[in-house]
C-alpha cells in the first residue's frame, strides 16, 4: 500500500484505506475453502483553516484480499488496520491470526490465542494501537454471559502486547475496562463493547470510541440498537477518565456504532476520522465514515459508503 500525503491550498489530503469484516459472507463461494476481505481506497481532505473535512472513495478501487485459513468455516473477518514495524497489519477476529496485508495477499504473521494465553481458541481481536514501540491488541472488553446472565468467560478482558519480533505478552485489563464502563455510567452487569481504541503519545492518554453501551446485561436484540456516540479518554493508569458525547444528543443514532478510528496527522491528535457500522436483524449492512474533533464537534456528518459491505478497519497513509 503506498504512503502519501498531499498538501493543497484547500487543506491537506491524505490517502486512506478501509477493510471489511463480512462475517459469514467472507467465504468466496460455498466449498471454495477461500475467504476474503475487501480493501477500498479513498482520499481524506482536511482544512484546519475553515475547520472542514471531506472524504471521497476511489471508483473501482475495491480489491479482494484472500486466505485459506479458517476456524470452523469462518475466516478473514478483519476488524482493524494499522502499520507496525514497516508492515500493514490486520487481525482476524474469527481465527486469532494477525495478517500482513500486502496487495491482494493476507500473509500470516502471528497467532493470538484467547484470554491469558493458555487457551486453544483464537482471540476475538477488535482493535489495535501502538504504544512504546509495541503493538497493543484488544477485544470487546466485556465478560460473556449465558442466557441466564451468568459469566462463562472473561477472556475478552485480556489484551495482548506484541513486540516487533512477534513476542506476545498477555495482560489482564479487567480493572481498566471496569473503570471505563463505571465512569461512562454502565457498571456491571451493564457493559461497553470496544471495537476501536488508540493510544496518543501527544496526550499520553488512551482514547476509546465504544461501539455499544447498555446499563443492563447483554441481550442480543437490545444490543443491536445500543450503539453509542461516546468518546472516552483515560490517563495511562486509567485513574483519570473523561467522557464526551460526539455531536451531543441531537446527532445520536443508536443503530450506528464505531468500528475503527484514526487521528488525523498534524492535528495534535485533536481530529478523528472514524468508521461506523450498522447491523440490525441480519438485514442490510451499512458502513459510514465521519470526522469530528475530540471535543465532540462534528466536521463531517455520517457519510454512507457504497455497497452493502461492513468496513471495520481504517488506515491513514502518512509519510
From TrEMBL:
The record lists Ca(2+) as bound by: 79-80, 126, 195, 259, 312
Q: Name one GO biological process term.
A: proteoglycan biosynthetic process
> Any coiled-coil ranges, and where?
none
- Which keywords fit this entry according to its UniProt record? Calcium, Hydrolase, Metal-binding
Q: Is-annotated flag, keyword Transport?
A: no
Q: Which cofactor does it need?
A: Ca(2+)
Q: Which Pfam families match?
A: Apyrase (PF06079)
Q: Which domain of life is it from?
A: Eukaryota
The Gene Ontology terms for molecular function here are: calcium ion binding; GDP phosphatase activity; UDP phosphatase activity
Family statement: Belongs to the apyrase family.
Specify the protein name: Soluble calcium-activated nucleotidase 1 (inferred by orthology to a human protein)
Which species does this protein come from? Nippostrongylus brasiliensis
Amino acid at each position: 500500500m503506498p504512503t502519501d500525503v498531499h498538501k493543497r491550498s484547500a487543506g491537506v489530503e491524505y490517502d486512506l484505506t478501509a477493510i471489511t469484516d463480512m462475517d459469514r459472507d467472507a467465504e468466496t463461494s460455498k466449498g471454495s475453502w477461500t475467504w476474503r476481505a475487501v480493501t477500498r481506497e479513498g482520499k481524506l481532505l482536511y482544512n484546519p483553516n475553515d475547520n472542514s473535512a471531506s472524504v471521497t472513495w476511489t471508483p473501482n478501487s475495491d480489491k479482494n484480499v484472500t486466505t485459506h485459513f479458517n476456524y470452523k468455516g469462518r475466516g478473514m473477518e478483519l476488524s482493524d488496520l494499522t502499520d507496525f514495524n514497516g508492515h500493514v497489519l490486520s487481525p482476524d477476529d474469527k481465527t486469532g491470526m494477525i495478517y500482513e496485508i500486502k496487495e491482494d495477499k493476507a500473509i500470516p504473521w502471528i497467532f493470538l490465542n484467547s484470554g491469558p494465553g493458555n487457551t486453544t481458541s483464537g482471540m476475538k481481536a477488535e482493535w489495535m494501537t501502538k504504544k512504546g514501540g509495541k503493538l497493543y491488541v484488544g477485544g470487546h472488553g466485556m465478560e460473556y454471559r449465558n442466557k441466564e446472565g451468568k459469566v462463562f468467560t472473561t477472556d475478552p478482558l485480556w489484551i495482548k502486547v506484541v513486540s516487533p519480533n512477534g513476542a506476545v505478552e498477555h495482560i489482564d485489563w479487567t480493572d481498566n475496562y471496569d473503570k471505563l464502563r463505571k465512569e461512562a455510567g454502565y457498571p456491571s452487569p451493564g457493559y461497553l463493547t470496544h471495537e476501536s481504541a488508540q493510544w496518543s503519545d501527544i496526550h499520553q492518554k488512551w482514547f476509546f470510541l465504544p461501539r455499544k453501551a447498555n446499563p443492563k446485561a447483554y441481550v442480543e436484540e437490545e444490543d443491536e440498537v445500543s450503539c453509542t456516540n461516546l468518546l472516552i479518554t483515560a490517563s495511562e493508569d486509567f485513574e483519570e477518565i473523561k467522557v464526551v458525547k460526539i455531536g451531543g444528543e441531537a446527532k445520536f443514532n443508536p443503530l450506528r456504532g464505531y468500528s475503527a478510528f484514526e487521528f488525523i496527522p498534524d492535528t495534535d491528535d485533536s481530529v478523528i476520522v472514524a468508521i461506523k457500522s450498522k447491523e440490525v436483524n441480519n438485514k442490510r449492512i451499512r458502513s459510514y465514515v465521519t470526522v469530528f474533533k475530540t471535543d465532540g464537534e462534528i466536521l463531517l456528518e455520517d457519510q454512507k459508503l457504497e455497497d452493502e459491505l461492513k468496513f471495520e478497519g481504517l488506515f491513514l497513509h502518512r509519510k
